[in-house]
Amino acid sequence: MKILDSAPSPGSAPGFRSISRDDCARLSGPAVRTFRAIADEWGLSEKERIAVLGMPARSTYHQWMRKAEERAPLALPLDTLMRISGVLGIYKALAILFHEPAQAARWLKGAHRGTVFAGASPMSFVVEGGQDGIMTVRRYLDGWRGGSMGHGAAEGSFAPVGEGDLVIL
User: Fold this and answer.
1) At 3, is the pLDDT very low, low, confident or very high (cuts 50, 70, 90)?
2) 101 or 17, which is more confident?
3) CB-facing half-sphere around the CA of 137: CA atoms within 13 A
4) Number of independent structural domains in the chain
5) Cβ neighbours of residue 100 under 8 Å, at least 6 residues apart?
6) Which pTM was predicted?
7) How far apart are CA 3 and CA 83, in angstroms?
8) Structural domain of residue 95, as residue ranges?
9) 98: Cβ–Cβ under 8 A, 6 or more apart, which residues?
10) Per the domain annotation, does 157 fall within a domain?
11) Distance CA 19, CA 11 (A)
């Protein structure tokens, strides 16, 4: 996989670079330790943590946690690092949007009328929606932070197109 190289050499245009196994190994320990702290704060069960990380075997999950705690060499799969990156983005956005962690937790765990959530909690997207669910919540929060909720309409004011809206010529 390739990622955008946001720090190319001076005078050169941004380009793409491959993510190496060394990159994964360098990031994995800190990523797992940070994920554990966030999961603890959010009150995620072991089953939910495993789901967020992409359903590794329970023994693999415990091996990752042990290696991260001991600061032993660890190289997570890229998919798992991407999932953790999404969780970190959600956590950061919640910290910016809400002054109190309890408010952020209520938003994350509460049901929503927002178009994207359709009555479900954002946490259900994170736990049950795979990488796409995690990134959906992250993009939603990034849009909220940037003032782009509802594409110019007030949140919750979206009405789906119905039969009465169709015009056949």
Assistant:
1) low
2) 101
3) 31
4) 1
5) none
6) 0.79
7) 15
8) 22-149
9) 104, 107
10) no
11) 23
